[in-house]
Structure formats: C-alpha cells, structure tokens
Amino acid sequence: MAPRLLSCFGVRGSSTSTTGKGISGHNAAVVAADVPAGDGPVLVQLFSSQGCKTSPEAEMLVSRLGRGDFDGQIRREGGSGSPAMILVFHVDYWDYMGWKDPYGSSQWTVRQKAYIEALNQDTIFTPQFVVQGRVQFLGNEEETLLKSIVEAPRFPSPAFQATFQRPTSETLRVSLTGALRMKVDSTGIDIMVALYENGLVTDCPRGENSGRVLANDYVVRKLEKLCTVKDLAAKKTVSETAHFTVWDGFNSAKCGVAVFLQNASLQIFGTQSFQLPNEI
C-alpha cells in the first residue's frame, strides 16, 4: 500500500455488577451499579475497522480483556471489579477498500483525529489503542496494552444510579443521578455517555477481510455529552438525562452503557458502566 496519512497495522458487558427492577406502568428500569470503594476502571478505547486487515486481532484482544482473561495481570492490589472499561469505535475511512463497515461512523473518525492532535501524533491508523486518554499505541500490542493499563492514572468511579426508559420503540432515555466523587474546578469536565453493543457477528465478503467472519464486542453505537460541570464539589449530586435513537434490531440484552468523565484534551478522569436490563 502506498504511504498515506492513514495506515492499517498489523465478555463481560459491564465492569460493575448491577441490579434492576421494573417500574410499574412504564417500560423502564432502575439500575444501581456497585461502585468500587477505591479507584474505578481504566478506560481503554480502540479505534478499529472491519475494513482493516489487522483490526480483527485487536478486536479479539479487547474481547479477552473484557471477559477478564487478564484481570490477574492488571488488577491492582486490593482492587475490586473489572480493572478496565472498553469502548470500540469503528472509523469510516477504510470503507473505500471495498467493504463498508456497518458500524463505522465519521463521528468516531473525528474523535480519533482529536486524539491524534491531543497526543501529538502525525499519522492516523487502525487498530489504535488509547488508554485513559493519555497514551496511544498499535492495537495488537498485548504487552503494551496490559502495561499501559497497570501504569495508567486511576480515579474514583462516579456513584450514579441509572434509570432506563423507552418512551417509544425507537428511543432510549438514560437518566443519571449521583455524585462524581471528585472535585471539578473552573476548567470544567464533560460527562459522556456511550451506548455500546456486544456479540456482533458479520460475514465480510469484500475488502481486506474478505471471506472472514468478524466478531466484535463493546462496539460504540451512540455517544452523547450528558452535560458539562464546573466548580463542583465531590459529593454534589448531578442529575441529567441523555436521549438516544436506537437502531433496527436493538436488543438491550446485548447492550451496555458506559459513563466517563473527560476534559477538553479528552483525558479521562472517572468511569462507570451499566448493563442494560433485558426487559427494557
């Protein structure tokens, strides 16, 4: 392949346990996640594409990470719960290679480009890991991934309680109430909410992965900014709602919600995740 500004190099649904209960008369559920007493999970973001020949290896790596295969190597002493929270963003710039990634989005390409700039890189490529918004590296480097998670700065998880509602068959409403468990100064922080899907299987008849059956977990389908907060005490309650339009074939049993705090440079300062209730 000729030199380009882009290159292709070569499960557990929630990082916290959840409980849910139905609300009489409404298609809704309240979920309270177990909040770790100490530091919360490290956010691992993977920028990937079904059109990239080496991305499936990275996707397999995050699936193993999500189901706990490496917990013994990355969990800090005295830690509880999953040490990592995973989000996979499928970019769209490989679609020209003959296979249009059904989960690819220009929105995720824009997010990856923002990290390229923030981390002083000059090449956009897949697969690419970004850990806690502070370091990046090639997406099939298992040893580097585990080392980066161990060495990443960690922060308390927010203590949100989530209410999930389906106002219509095409929409999902996620209401979060709770404390961030960290002080926010005047520079502010964005509270982001991602809706992701597990257990995706795709027959790929064209492109660099022609003839392969591709398996994908933690694939981000929607991402919204819940709100921006400034000058906030650690125990101050935040209460906001995110609205999502769901896709055809939406199955809540395969989906989860990831909440994370990020600053203007996309550095991560806290994470919390919820498994969607089956009945929602």
Strand order of the largest sheet: 2-3-9-10-15
Tell me the series of helices and strands, N- to C-terminal.
Answer: EEEEHHEHEEEHEEEEEEEEE
Mean pLDDT: 89
Q: First CA to last CA: what distance?
A: 46 Å
Rg (C-alpha, Å): 18 Å
Helix/strand class = mainly beta
Helix content: 10-25%
Q: Which parts are unreliable, with pLDDT below 50 for 5 consecutive residues or more?
A: 1-5, 11-26
Which word captures the global form? globular
Strand content: 35-45%
Biggest β-sheet strands, sense, barrel: 5 strands, antiparallel
What is the tally of beta strands? 17
Q: Note the total helix count.
A: 4
Protein name: Thioredoxin-like fold domain-containing protein
Pfam families: DUF1223
InterPro entries: DUF1223, Thioredoxin-like_sf
Would you mind describing this structure in some detail?
With 280 residues, this protein is mostly beta strands. Helices cover 14% and strands 39% of the residues. It contains four helices and 17 strands. A hairpin with a 7-residue loop joins β12 (200-204) and β13.
Helix and strand arrangement:
Layout: E1 6-8, E2 18-22, E3 28-33, E4 42-48, H1 55-66, H2 71-74, E5 84-90, H3 106-118, E6 124-126, E7 128-131, E8 135-138, H4 142-151, E9 161-165, E10 171-179, E11 189-197, E12 200-204, E13 212-216, E14 219-229, E15 237-245, E16 255-262, E17 268-275
Parallel strand pairs: 1-6, 4-5
Antiparallel strand pairs: 2-3, 3-9, 4-7, 7-8, 9-10, 10-15, 11-14, 11-16, 12-13, 16-17
Pfam family, one: DUF1223
Protein name: Thioredoxin-like fold domain-containing protein
InterPro entries: DUF1223, Thioredoxin-like_sf
